[in-house]
Predict the 3D structure of the following.
Amino acid sequence: MDTIFTNKSARKLLPIAASFAAVYGVSTPANAFTIGSLNPDSAPGIHANKAPYTVGITSADVGKTFSTYWILKGATTQPLKAKAYFKVTELTSSNLSLDTVLFNRTDDSFRAALTNLGLGVSPNANKVSFKSKGDVFKYAYVETGKQYFPGGYQDIDVCINTVKTGSKSNCAGGAVKDGLQAGDKDIFGLDIAGKYGNNPTVTLQTFPVKFHTSEGIYELSASKPREVPTPAATLGIIAFGAISAVSTLKRKSKSITE
């Protein structure tokens, strides 16, 4: 039986929704995410004096979306670019739920793949699981030990990966072939468990990513996050309704093939 709303068509709605946000996003509503930064000393080595950004989240932010991006120019033939949207779908005393859309916006003429995404979480995360796995990002775990991310980033609780690893430290990633390729996007939902208090508050920080390219490996922290205004109710329906549709289609497809 033919279906009008397919996995492919659902995914096409996401950049459309993002473009609506860019056109109509002229103001930030009250009770927005709290955007801040860490002491630059927390970014050692090659990242010294670069203050990682933070996003403070409260229960007032449930249903809201923030975005961030990554860019590195001059190190490779083509600039390395990525962007992500994070929608807060739940925040309780013990759980933070995020729906995520991650884009590799590097020009597809250049071989560059995203293989890792890290999240610093305060209070510390104690467990992470997928509400829905991505097509590329299928593995996630809470780091042990020093909570290290390649490139010198520290205090990274959650590692989201494209390959399964035997270690829950250092957020090791896969090869170029395993990653999110230039010009592509991936959609996944996360549940991040922790002790967030009776009036729950969570701070996410740094958001490092790793690029594997044909010209080397590069790790970047996120540029300043911003709330995505949604003046039209249909924007949220289009963007994250598409995520739900994709997740549903994945489940149906899996049940048919099992």
